[in-house]
Structure formats: structure tokens, C-alpha cells
Amino acid sequence: MSLVRNSITIGGLTLVSRVLGLVRDMLMARFVGAGLASDAFLIAWRLPNLFRALFAEGAFAAVFVPLFNKKMTEAESEKAEQGLLVARRFASQVLSVLFPFLVVFTVLMMLAAGPIVWAMTGGFPDGGQQKFALARHLTIVTFPYLALISLVSLLGGILNSLNRYWVNAAAPILLNICMIVALVFFRGDSEVETAVTQAIAVTVSGAMQLLWLMWACHRAGASLKLSFPRLTPDVKVMLALIAPAAIGQGAIQFNLLISTSLAARFLPEGSVSWLYYADRLNQLPLGLIGIAIGTAILPTLSRQIAGKDGDAASHTQNRAVELALFFALPAMVALIVAATPIVRGVFEHGAFTPSDSAGTAAVLMAFSAGVPAYVLIKVLTPGFYARGDTKTPLRLALYSMLVNLIGNLILIWPLAHVGVGVATAIAAWVNVILLWITLRRRGHIRFDARLLQKAWRILLAAALMGVALWFGNTLVEENLGDGLWRRVAILSALVGSGGVIYGVAILASGAYRLGELKSLLRPKKAA
């Protein structure tokens, strides 16, 4: 399958997950709102969610997949049927070391939930002891998810290496289904009780995802076996690479963790929730585009680099950057221009008030300025990981995190929660620039004529779409009304019309011909 089709497979299933995630967030906004219970739950969920982003969508796959592919390729060069067997033996060694570590680490983190929450929030100076106690309790309930999702990412890396992308991409759907079922059928009589139900649903979903991946690996003939943990040379190599990869891949998530911590300390009640809801909308293009493309190109890059085909690897990354810009630039423009009607239409009902919509929309506009950067980070970092280099992205990510921290400390006072969004976007662009400069200096990538020719035309088409959306904003906001289905219909019309205008502008600007767009969906040999 081609890069585009692999990306579409992953992105399509991610779209289903993110749509269900929006449904979940709409229900959360309705039943939990943006106050004490919501802030406490979102703090408790931040660390498990951070580990999900680091491992399931980032570091573990970035390190494990190239090593797994290398083992399989080397063994196949000698005897074809030995490839999966040798690679599976390596994966079982990793599992045998990872499993006991995760058990011990999770227990220790649960025992230390109080100090962890205090470190993240300063004890909620604005919310008092009740919010702190609730956040601590919810943290204990959600922490097992951390271990479960780490095991899921090991199995998902195996399936991705076997070109079974859809199985791993479908796993997060179970998280959203569990949380939706909990909100609809098992919510409590109060916002606090409902928050506890959500925390339980998070951990249950981790168990369901693990069972799903275990079944899929069994079907693929890639079941793993636990044995006495041994630090074999191969496992040592992976462990040496995983820590820097985690920090490097998780720069955006660490930046959000810093931002959330500062908001809990210095901003009024509700600010943590505004940041969360804005980030949920902002994460849509990252999940649909950045993670999909980054996941799809890593095995391809690994094989091309292992075969010493540098030109093919550079071509693959050029096409990945092109595809990222094609989707990310219009997403950025739409989220900035139409932030207010989108937030009102999705979240403003029940306990979520008009003032919550205003706060969330303001943060969303700031976050969205970094959408192309968030996506490009996921597209450029495989260029390092496929070469076994996890330290360089780590170093560059640390610079980005420092920029984010300084930006937060400077901007949070004059701009409050909006300053958090601005600092996050600036830090992401700094990370992208550093990644690109480093890859270019090493001769690993050079933007080709096709990419440079199409990039400015894509930007022009996105700008024209933004102008059209800006004129349509007033009409949309005036007709949103109170009915859920009315809001869904109007927002769908807004998104659909924006997509049509963007498509027409793409063709009119000459960025793509109609035949090129059709060819993206046709199977072709990967570069």
C-alpha cells in the first residue's frame, strides 16, 4: 500500500475515534461542565493521557518498530520464514522486561498520587482541599491505564510492522466507547460522582484495548510469551533509545502538562477545563494527519534507510510533508476563523456556559496557530528515529520545552489562559524549525521543487477558504439554536462548505490537478 493509502487507513479510523471523542466531550461538558469536578478529573487524566501520547502514538513505536523491522529483514535475508520468528522472539524479550517494570511503576505512582497531584497543581490554590482530594482519588483510579496502554503500544508496534495498521488505529475507539457508555448509563447524581465514573471507564478501556490487540496478534501469528526478564543486548539497545525518544516525541504533551500545571496554580477555576476542551479540538488534525502520516512512513523509512537508499527516503519525507500541509493548513485556518461557532456548537449546553465557550474559543484560536507545526513534528521526527537517532529530537524538544516555559511565564500574566495557547504554538514552531534545519544540514532531507511549488498554492487556497468562513460566521452563530441535531447540521454545513471552497481553490490555484487528487487514493507502490 502507498503512503497515502496507509495514512488514509490510519486517519480514517482515527477520525472515527476523534468523532466519538467529541461526542464524549460534549457529554462531559453537559454533565460535568467546566468547574471543580471537571478540573479535578482532567488533572487526574493528564498523566495517563500523557503516557498514551508518548507510548501509543510516539516514543515506543518510534524505537520499537525500526528495531523489529531490522530483526525481521535481517532474518528474512537468510531464510524467509525465519523473519517473523526472530522478530517475535525479540518482542517477547521486550515484553518480559517491560511487564514487571510497569507493574511496579504503576503501584508506586498510585501510592504517590497525593504528591504527584500537588506537584502538578500546587494544591489547587483556587479550589481548596475538596478539589485536591478529588483529583488525588481520580488519579489513583486512572493510573492502571498507564501500564495497560504501554503494553498495547508494544503489540500495536508489531502489527504496524506487519502492515496491519487498522487494528492498532482502531484501539482508541474503545476508550471513547467506554467513556460514552459510562456517561450515558452509569453517571452519578452529581458532577463529582460522574467524574469518578469517567475515571473508572478510562481504566476499563485500557483493559479492553489490551485484549483487542492480544487477539489481533494471535490472529497474525505474532503472539508473545512471557519469560524471566533478561537484559539481552537487543533489549539494552531499545532501553537506551526509549527515554530520549519519549521526551522528544512528547514535547507537545509535556508543554501541555506544564501549561495545565501553571493554569491550575495561577488562573481562575475553569481555566484547566477551557484548556482541555480547546486542546481536544486542536488535537483533531494532529490525530487525523500528523500521527497517521508519521505512523505510516516510519516502517517505509526504516526499510529505505536500511537499504541505504537515501534518495528514496528523502522523497518519502517530501511527500509526507506535502500531504501534511495539504490537510494541516486548512485545518489551522478553519479552527482560527471559526473557533467561536465551533466551540458553541459542540460544547455549549447543560453545565457548559456561554462564558466557558468564550474562554475555550479564545484558547483554541491561540492553539490553532501551531496546527501545521504539531503535524510536521510527527512527520519530521521519523527521519531521525528510522536512523536510530533518538537523542537529537530529544535535545531539540528540550529547547522547545524551554521556549514554552518561558513563554508561559511571560504571557500568562497579560493574556491569562490565551497566553498558554500562544506559548504552546510558538514552542511547536521552534521545534519544527530546529528539526528541519538539522535534517537538512545532515543531508537527510532537501525540499524538492514539487513540494516548494505546491506549498504556497496550498496556503493560498487555505486563505481563500478562511475568508469565506469569516463571512459565514455571523450567519452560523445566529442560527445555532439549542437543539443538538440543529447544531450538528449547521456545523456540518459549515465544515462541508469550507471543504468544498478549499477543494475548488486548490484546483483553481493549480496546487493539484483533478487527476492528481484522484491518484492519491489509488494503490501504488510505496516510494
Q: Could you explain how this protein is built, in words?
A:
The chain has 527 residues and is mainly alpha-helical. It has one domain (3-519). The chain contains 22 helices and no strands. It has helices at residues 3-31, 36-56, 59-78, 82-111, 113-121, 128-142, 144-161, 165-185, 191-219, 233-249, 251-266, 271-306, 310-337, 339-347, 354-368, 371-380, 382-385, 391-415, 417-441, 449-478, 484-509, 514-519. The longest helix is centred in the middle third of the chain and has 36 residues, at 271-306. It is globular and about 60 Å long. Residues 523-527 have low confidence and may be disordered.
Shape: globular
Major sheet summary line: none
Q: What is the share of helical residues?
A: over 70%
What's the tally of helices?
22
| Overall mean confidence score, pLDDT | 81
Distance between the termini: 10 Å
- What count of structural domains? 1
Q: Radius of gyration, Cα only, in angstroms?
A: 22 Å
User: How many DSSP-defined strands?
Assistant: 0
- Helix and strand sequence: HHHHHHHHHHHHHHHHHHHHHH
Quaternary organisation of the protein chains? single chain
Query: Given the helix and strand composition, which structural class is it?
Result: mainly alpha
